[in-house]
Structures are given as C-alpha cells and as structure tokens.
Design a protein that fits this description.
Blueprint (H helix, E strand, L loop, with lengths): L1 H17 L10 H23 L16 H20 L8 H4 L3 H19 L9 E4 L2 E4 H25 L12
Antiparallel strand pairs: 1-2
C-alpha cells in the first residue's frame, strides 16, 4: 500500500510539469510538490468554470452523468470535506453540489474551496504523517492531500471532455498567453 501511494504521489506531482506552459517554482518537500499539482489543477478547473457559458452549466453528455455545473459543485464539496478532515475542522460549506447552480455561485464556491484547502496544503512535511479519520479509516494526512489532488485531476478530465464536446479548448491545452 505504501509503495502504491508513493508511486501515485510521484505521478500526481509530475502531472503539472507535463502540462503545457507550466512554470511552477520548485516546491519544498512532498507536501509542497503536491501543492503545486493541486494549485495547477485548481487553476484549470476555475478557468474551465469561468470560460464555459452559463447556459451550458446544465449540459450533460448523457442523462446519467453529472452536469458541468454539478461537477463543479461536487469538486468544491469534496475539497471542503477532505480539507476539513485534514485540518480537523467542520466542513465550512457543505451542500454546494445540490444547493448552487448559477455560474457566479459555483465559481465563487470553487475559489473559496481552493482558498480553504490552501491551509491544508500549507502544512509542514513533518505534519503530513499524522493520522486523521477520512472515509471511515485512519490515514496519514498526506493521503488526504493526495486523494484530494487526484480527485481534482479526475474531474478536470471530465470537464475537458465537456468543454471539447461544446467546441471549446480546455485551459491546459490553450496556447500560452
């Protein structure tokens, strides 16, 4: 399990370096490297939300999947839930996916969730091994950070598909400005 977590951590940390136009400063330690990945995907997700027309926030490629807007709400909810567990705090804003539908509300909720998670990703490396209860199990705090970052990348992949289906170029594929 530890080897799998380490391999996954290395892959997640390498993802931003592979992204077009990425110029992140080297991060300090494993938490810092993971923060760079989380910051990169968070930027892509927020830009995706900002660039998609509000009329397409209800778009679903097939009836059984989440809409574009629901994915954004789900990401914000998950960020808040996971980072609250890592920080040992109550969830600051539960119910975003079910309670917010407008573009403005979802963009604001996403930004707030990334700001909140910034506290968790600011932890010193020495704190990352301390255990927390997450998804019903005791886990190192680092595993929570890793799960959160990989979950964001997973759903950014969904958003890329939705954007492409609408004839748009996703942020990670856009020419460098």
């Amino acid at each position: 399990m530890k080897k799998a977590s380490l391999v996954l951590a290395v892959l997640v940390m390498a993802a931003p370096a592979l992204a077009q136009g990425m110029k992140a400063a080297p991060a300090a330690g494993m938490v810092g490297a993971l923060k760079a990945s989380f910051d990169a995907v968070g930027g892509y997700i927020v830009r995706s939300a900002q660039e998609m027309p509000e009329a397409d926030f209800a778009f679903k490629p097939t009836p059984e999947v989440r809409s574009f807007g629901q994915i954004l709400g789900h990401v914000a909810d998950s960020n808040n839930m996971i980072c609250a567990a890592i920080l040992g705090q109550p969830n600051p804003a539960p119910g975003i996916e079910k309670g917010k539908t407008s573009k403005a509300d979802l963009v604001a909720a996403l930004k707030a969730s990334y700001t909140y998670c910034g506290q968790a990703y600011a932890m010193p490396n020495a704190e990352a091994g301390k255990t927390i209860k997450l998804f019903g199990h005791e886990r190192p705090r680092f595993n929570g950070l890793l799960a959160n970052a990989t979950h964001n990348w997973e759903h950014y992949g969904n958003l890329v598909t939705y954007l492409r289906l609408k004839g748009m170029v996703p942020p990670s594929s856009q020419p460098k400005k």
